[in-house]
Design brief:
single chain, about 230 residues, alpha+beta, Jelly Rolls, four-stranded antiparallel sheet, 9 helices
């Protein structure tokens, strides 16, 4: 299962299931956020290494990482592949593997976000590409927040409400199109991450929710979206 029909820009999601045992050899070409579902044991290297339990919390792989070894156990895995340019677009900062490599811990929030991304793929992107892009943006933000490198924002400007209202008017005028978060950000002259934060600051929920319920007052339900904390 993969996100080939999502309409997402420069990133994709894939679910992989393996059975029994086998060998693997891989070279990572993107920033990959992966989570194993169920028991799996890995022996790193070509031979002579013992099998160890593979972590079930989200793990990161970076461009250029090489993996060789053996595995045992039937399991599924979720994998989000992000190009470095996509990370820069979603975070508003220059991508450096060295800044993200020290991050560790259980990454509970990222696990929930990967699950939400999986649901979006399984259900066929009923909200269009904006929901998946909002989730991917939140995952990138979580990775930087883990090590205290949040991207700069300007969500206190007195013109924020007017900017959000103009964006809502623009979405309504183009509602027949599959509008992406990137298109919304370009229209507002901000990064995708800044877009999600200023929209939530002004309305209480992320931009994809307004797109899915176009025609309602964007400021009428401030704070009513239970998923806003994860998706912005």
């Amino acid at each position: 299962m993969h996100s080939g029909k999502s309409g997402w820009h420069d990133f994709h999601f894939q679910e992989v299931q393996v059975f029994g045992e086998g060998t693997f050899e891989s070279v990572t070409t993107s920033l990959t956020v992966s989570m194993t579902l169920g028991p799996m044991r890995i022996a790193r290297g070509l031979s002579g290494h013992s099998f160890l339990d593979h972590p079930t919390d989200p793990q990161l792989s970076f461009p250029g990482d090489v993996g060789v070894g053996r595995w045992k156990g039937t399991q599924r895995g979720w994998h989000l592949f992000l190009k470095p340019s996509t990370v820069e677009r979603l975070s508003g900062r220059v991508f450096r593997s060295s800044e993200l490599r020290p991050a560790n811990g259980t990454r509970v929030a990222i696990g929930h976000l990967l699950r939400a991304l999986h649901v979006d793929v399984v259900t066929g992107h009923r909200s269009g590409p904006a929901l998946g892009e909002a989730i991917a943006s939140s995952i990138v933000q979580q990775l930087y927040d883990e090590i205290g490198l949040a991207a700069p924002d300007d969500i206190t400007s007195p013109t924020v409400n007017a900017r959000v209202q103009r964006l809502c008017d623009w979405i309504e005028a183009h509602i027949e199109l599959p509008i992406t978060l990137e298109a919304m950000a370009a229209e507002s002259a901000v990064t995708v991450r800044q877009l999600c934060r200023i929209f939530r600051a002004a309305t209480g929920y992320p931009p994809h929710r307004f797109q899915a319920t176009t025609g309602t007052d964007p400021f009428a339900s401030r704070g009513s979206d239970p998923h806003a904390g994860f998706l912005a």
